Amino acid sequence: MATKTISIEEARARVLAEAAPLSVEARLLVEALGAVLAEEIIAPHSVPPFDNSAMDGFAVRAADTVDASAESPADLLLGETIPAGHVAAHSLGAGEAAKIMTGAPLPDGADAVVQSESAGEKGDRVLIWEAVKPGKNIRRAGEDVVQGEKVLGAGSVLGPAEIGLAASMGFPTVQVHRQPRVAIISTGSELIEVDQPLGPGQIRNSNSYSLRAQCQQLGIEATALGIVPDDYEATRRLVEQGLGYDVLLTSGGVSVGEFDFVKDIQDELGVERRLWGVAMKPGKPLAFGVRGSTLVFGLPGNPVSAMVSFELFVRPALLRLMGYRKTTRPSYRAIIAEDVANTDGRVYVVRVRAWREDGSWHVSSTGAQGSGILRSMVGANGLAFVPGGPRGVRAGEGVEFLLLREDLQEP
Ligand code: AMP
Ligand code: MG
Fold it and tell me: Which of 19, 267, 309, 354 is positioned for an S-S bond with 382, CB 3.0–4.6 A?
């Protein structure tokens, strides 16, 4: 089974079939952005915990203000001042008022707050120029959250609001699915590190940088295990080390060239192959398998192929390991700006610039689409899918695309 070229959807399904959410750990709330909650958060108390003032003003008994107006204000005895964080020392009697700040607990006996703008202080009296109804300018205990209520469910993705809510509930740590440990290996005798001078026949290793950055966008700090030349033994040793991680990404050496032995090494080390070859370009030679609980991706070496394969297959797997249910980017139908010929049997994955105009999505190729041309990945905020067929698509026709970035949407 696992050696026949298959569709993108089928390949993604085979990858996701091997990816289950990782174990659960306690994480500090300040480090939990983007993590997926593995517990329910039940409110241990209400929010707000007590009735409090929504305004700076005067706490009153509404009944004392029924006839108040600018012409004939209610004249009340002004007692204490209640700042936020303080509890009133006295309860409020008939004909009395207390000065109160936003967020301060309402004194017993008061049932409304008159905002400062509708009152005037005069020594130990305050004149109220406005009749208020009971409850006016009061935030009720439990108005946001009622004690005992479920405020966040297991499976919630923790964004800034969820983290704020957990903090307001008194959770300094939360139970979340742990992050995958990811290793990256770059294969190729032609590769040198980014800070090395170029010798004859050499190129710089860019894949481990782009792949690491793609992991970082998910909050994952991958470990780059380095460059290995096209030497069977050296590659086997490094791949063996990489199999100690949750996810191993190799780039290069997975095609059909004489020195492409990443697949053989996977076999020798007991990686069970789930697929080899996806009917797309760029990115056809993808070899995916599992050993124990490790997901092993043999990504193609061409810089664009490696990034596109990460986007379409590795990213969904990493999200699933983190506990995400939704693992795909938003996808839309767009009008394409130019002809894209594709008479191949493979789906052409085109790097595009996508923008909204007149209520529709539009996409336009970012330039030369060779699988080694990283320049056209720069400035791309989408990947469009042009199916193979008699001709491809013509300008003005519709294509599906994935929206990769929310920025970069200028027409
Ligand atoms: P391969 O799949 O090993 O045949 O590599 C395909 C192409 O990608 C070759 O032109 C390689 O030089 C290039 N390549 C492989 N690995 C990397 C890398 N880590 N960074 C940049 N280019 C690479
Ligand atoms: Mg190579």
Answer: 354
